[in-house]
Amino acid sequence: GATTVAGVAGAPVRHSLSPLIHNAWLAAAGIDGVYVPFSPPADSFIPFVDGLRGGAVRGLNVTLPFKEEALMAADDVSPRARLAGAANLLVFSPEGAVHADNTDGVGLLHAFAVQAPGFDPKAGPVVILGAGGAARGAAAAFVDAGSPQVRIVNRTLMRAEQVAGTVGEAAVPYPLDKAAEAMAGAVAVINATSAGLSGQGELDAPLEAAPAGAVAMDMVYKPLRTPFLARAEALGLRTVDGLEMLIGQAIPSFEAFFGRRPPVETDVRAICLEALSQ
Ligand code: NDP
Prior knowledge:
It contains eleven helices and twelve strands. It is of the alpha/beta class.
């Protein structure tokens, strides 16, 4: 048969770790497939997707800045992608239809399962810092996983209120200056802001207000040890990182592209750590 082709679309896409992850799994599983980076022009993502309909590409992961536009490019959208307001996965049917999904929530829960074994989302409130697409997806994933309350803390309160409004009754909005209040009694605190990203400035979050048993998670993985995670470690909190989330979102993506579960025993984390250290 023909080689199965999938890829990741982003701008910039050059530093994406997704090709490393998927190609390592393809090689280990002996699948005749390839995963390539695509860099569509910033203003023509939808025509780019339309041009791939019914063609040789089986599907795409979608990264910044196209995750919201990916919803508009699709013919149908999964409930979890609709709830997140963003898609990180587009799958093409042989007939040319485009299906949008969002596997970031799966990735987030995978990261907790791997790096904070025994963590129970049902055990108490979860704090999510940020109100962008990543925060929205995380809030939806924790509500689905049975969190009794999801506290959305954001610098711009109105955006936190909007996210809480779409996620439902379990979500409660807080302004950033009430973050300490939000952290009281929390079982997890998740940084879903872009603060911490190299060159993006630091997030002013009073982690010392979180209980000693809380888990701190940062979606940012460049650098892997963000100032937020360093502070959490200094406070003795368990930590979960964004690289494990990236690997976790790739698992259902790989299944959608190549029709089988990836060989997760392959140490793609080591491959990514090597790339991040360069
Ligand atoms: P958005 O740009 O949509 O949202 C950014 C959020 O960060 C906003 O809530 C914004 O607040 C807040 N913010 C930015 N800078 C600061 C600051 N200095 N202090 C306080 N708040 C700040 O981004 P996304 O939701 O798409 O993504 C968020 C992050 O998550 C990105 O870094 C992304 O790379 C990462 N990510 C990682 C994934 C993984 O697999 N590890 C998957 C998905 C995302 P305000 O509303 O006030 O502007």
